[in-house]
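Thought: the user wants the 3D structure for the chain below. I'll pass the sequence to the structure tool as-is, report back what it returns, then summarize two notable features.
Action: structure_tool
Action Input:
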Amino acid sequence: MIILASASPRRRELLTQIGCKFKVITSHADELSAEGLSPGELVVKNAHLKAAAVAAEHGEYPVLGADTVVSLDGHIYGKPQDEEHARDMLTRFSGRTHQVTTGVVFAWKNNFWQAWETTEVVFSPLSADQIDEYIATGEPVDKAGAYAIQGRAAVFIDGIRGSYSNVVGLPLHCLDGLARKAGIDLYDNGEGSSS
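Observation:
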């Protein structure tokens, strides 16, 4: 059993997909802004803050924190503030390759294990009408980069290089390796070994 310190339904779905036993306790930690940090540094620091906040109250199980951002040309994009912000992001991504980076952190027994992964996503050129139609669905609202690869935006994707699950919000291969390093068994209802 682990605790997922995230309200993201996508992360819940991914953990369920691999048969992980978990419960959700949302972290209310204040996240850092991107100022002066690389995407990898930012997502690991924010995932650490989320995991640490929940672990301080619920230390009996390993706590998983995660954070995802999108980057292009050195600029980091989180969730859009409004429709115009979403439109701006999608217009910038149109016909370009951007990066999606997710940080994952386990907090357990006063220790932290962390990793991050980056996937390149190639967007096809999008018309203004395509962008407006997509925004009208409401799907971009709570998504890093203003799109959901597992949703309607799948038709925008010309290709990816790297982990698909990372773009959804949780790099499963990376997560499994980190759990093994920490002695946490994701698959057997275990609470991890004592090592």
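Final Answer: Structure generated. The chain has six helices and seven strands. Strands lie at 2-4, 22-24, 63-72, 75-77, 97-108, 111-123, 157-161.
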